[in-house]
């Protein structure tokens, strides 16, 4: 029944014979759903953020041979996260977003970045097939039910916008935005990152320069962390990266993508596709250069990681900020 405040309350205790099938539903129920406006539901801050499975992607039609002695055939190209990085401090990556997506039956997680008070930038393969998204901003340790500065919002249906030319087979045009139901308040915990050619005057990145990538998830082939991490990574020329992927996995890296080298054992790994690759300008501004897209699914090969080139899609991104 509904109270005078409009909050739904259960009149009796419900018992599920197979509670694991309703894990997310029960978790949300037990902390209460709060209606913020007609036809909308916002999620409370203290929902369980670690019960979603990271979404992996597979490139179809390729014989994947990594020229490695162990498990050489049919390795997958997968979702990425930080290997050999450092733990972030609160507010250090205030533009970082954590996304929990759902198609109504399944739940998966990705990363993203806040590029305007109403817009989160992420990868298309994260959003494809989703009917809803829980967007967490200002988060650091996802095992904590509450954190200072954390904001949790929900988005639905046509608020999830995948690039019109996204190709799930090649993972080209791997970019999407999520429009938030209301502008978020910017502060020391939640901020926006600049987009080249849109919210920043700077154009293309120095491909041989230094970048920073941040996210949650696996830190090695076997270890997962739910605390935000980051690493400094070196850029790699598109030609070198394309040669590596063509020879090792028969995959064509194209001009709308960019790469980091994985040198020094620092790279991305399974768990947080859609997250930001950033570079600090000489002016001190932090500009997003890439969106974590794909890579070789062994966290410890020090292989190049592939990103969607944000500069290439600046016009598309700008059009979504309106």
UniProtKB/TrEMBL annotation:
GO terms for biological process: proteolysis. Residues 82-322 form the Peptidase S1 domain. SUPFAM superfamilies: Trypsin-like serine proteases (SSF50494). The keyword Signal applies. One of its GO terms (molecular function) is serine-type endopeptidase activity. Keywords: Disulfide bond, Hydrolase, Protease, Secreted, Serine protease, Signal, Zymogen. It comes from the Eukaryota. Its main location: secreted. Signal peptide: none annotated. It is found in: Secreted. GO terms for cellular component: extracellular region. SMART domains: Tryp_SPc. Belongs to the peptidase S1 family. CLIP subfamily. This is Peptidase S1 domain-containing protein. It comes from Graphocephala atropunctata.
């Amino acid at each position: 029944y509904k109270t005078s405040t409009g909050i739904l309350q259960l009149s009796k205790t419900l018992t599920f014979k197979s509670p694991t099938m309703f894990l997310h539903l029960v978790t949300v129920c037990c902390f209460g759903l709060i209606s913020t406006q007609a036809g909308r539901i916002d999620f409370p801050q203290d929902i369980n953020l670690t019960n979603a499975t990271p979404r992996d992607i597979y490139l179809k039609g390729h014989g994947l041979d990594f020229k490695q002695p162990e498990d050489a055939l049919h390795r997958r190209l997968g979702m990425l996260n930080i290997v050999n990085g450092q733990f972030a401090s609160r507010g250090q990556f205030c533009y970082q977003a954590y996304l929990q997506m759902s198609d109504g039956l399944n739940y998966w997680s990705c990363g993203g970045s806040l590029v305007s008070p109403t817009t989160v930038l992420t990868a298309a393969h994260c959003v494809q097939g989703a009917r809803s998204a829980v967007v967490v901003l200002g988060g650091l340790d996802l095992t904590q039910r509450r954190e200072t500065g954390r904001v949790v919002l929900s988005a639905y249906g046509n608020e999830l916008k995948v690039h019109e030319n996204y190709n799930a087979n090649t993972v080209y045009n791997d970019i999407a935005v999520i429009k938030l139901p209301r502008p978020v308040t910017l502060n020391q915990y939640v901020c926006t990152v600049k987009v080249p050619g849109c919210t920043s005057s700077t154009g293309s990145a120095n491909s041989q320069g230094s970048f920073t990538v941040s996210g949650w998830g696996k830190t090695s082939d076997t270890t997962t962390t739910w605390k935000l991490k980051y690493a400094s990574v070196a850029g790699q020329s598109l030609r070198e990266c394309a040669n590596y992927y063509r020879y090792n996995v028969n995959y064509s890296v194209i001009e709308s993508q960019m790469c980091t080298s994985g040198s020094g054992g620092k790279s991305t790994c399974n768990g947080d596709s859609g997250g930001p690759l950033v570079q600090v300008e000489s002016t001190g501004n932090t500009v997003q250069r890439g969106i974590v897209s794909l890579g070789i699914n062994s966290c410890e090969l020090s292989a190049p990681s592939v990103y969607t080139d944000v500069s290439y899609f600046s016009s598309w991104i700008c059009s979504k900020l309106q």
